[in-house]
Amino acid sequence: MIGYTTLGTNDIDRAAAFYDPVLALLDQHRLWAYERGIGWGTTAEQPSLGILKPFDGQPATAGNGTMVALLASNPEVVDQVHLLALTLGGQNEGDVGPRGEGFYGGYFRDLDGNKLCVYCRT
Fold first, then answer.
1. Distances (CA, A) of 82 to 10, 23, 59, 70, 106
2. Band of pLDDT at residue 99, cut at 50, 70 and 90
3. Measured distance CA(17)–CA(98) in Å, rounded
4. 35 phi and psi angles, rounded to 5 deg
5. Beta-ladder partners of 48
6. Rounded to whole angstroms, how far apart are CA atoms 17 and 88?
């Protein structure tokens, strides 16, 4: 159902320095890049994540109640992604660990305040 998701940024270079290594741990790479944004994924036919400066020219803001969940292959990758996101300046929004039956995840905000979850099914 999801083709792609975009999050706003006010600084493309800073966002790239955050998302390039974080998404590489999830085996995602840049699919496209231009002056307003960058997109990561596996192929253009699969769901992807874009980080863009808003089209209307206004400052990017994080949506209250908005979150993007990134699927990891196993709990070790969840741990690695969450730790790297925090090391790169992200804000912890929930330590990694089991949450409910068969779900292992952690939550963080990127450098623009966008909320993300990295998770796997166990």
1. 22, 11, 26, 11, 6
2. very high
3. 29
4. -60, -25
5. 4
6. 8
